[in-house]
Design goal:
The protein has 123 residues and is mainly beta. The protein has a single domain, classed as Beta Barrel (Elongation Factor Tu (Ef-tu), domain 3), CATH 2.40.30. The chain contains 1 helix and 9 strands; from the N terminus they run βββββαββββ. A hairpin with a 4-residue loop joins strand 1 and strand 2. The longest helix is centred in the middle third of the chain and has 5 residues.
């Protein structure tokens, strides 16, 4: 189904057994470089590659997860499964990043990401 299909149920699980109920916002940054365009004094363009690690930003339902504990947790393998598309995202030796905030009106946690040593997408 992958290719032109998106959305549906997405399941997040880390190797500590932590299951997170995603809230429909999941962005993957699978690349190992960011590319910036620069212009030289003679007007010619160049590009500069800066190394980055594979990462993802997630938004999820606050169902009592210890956010402070999550941030200081050991590196874990993280799996995110897109049930509708059949795509599986594997983040190896990932750790949690960001500044998580729990919106007490909507029950949504934002500002949290993961960064990993390796990323693999399987379809």
């Amino acid at each position: 189904m992958a290719g032109k299909d998106f959305g549906g149920v997405m399941k997040f699980r880390d190797s500590a057994g932590r299951n997170v109920s995603l809230r429909g916002n999941f962005s993957v940054y699978p690349h190992k470089n960011t590319i910036e365009g620069v212009v030289n004094q003679d007007g010619s363009p160049d590009r500069v590659a800066t190394p980055v690690a594979p990462r993802a930003e997630i938004t999820f339902a606050d169902k009592g997860i210890d956010l402070a504990g999550m941030m200081g947790d050991a590196r874990r393998d993280v799996t995110i499964v897109e049930e509708f598309t059949g795509i599986v995202h594997l983040f190896t030796r990932a750790f949690y990043t960001g500044d998580p905030a729990s919106n007490r009106m909507s029950g949504e946690v934002t500002g949290l990401g993961i960064m990993a040593e390796a990323y693999q997408r399987m379809s």
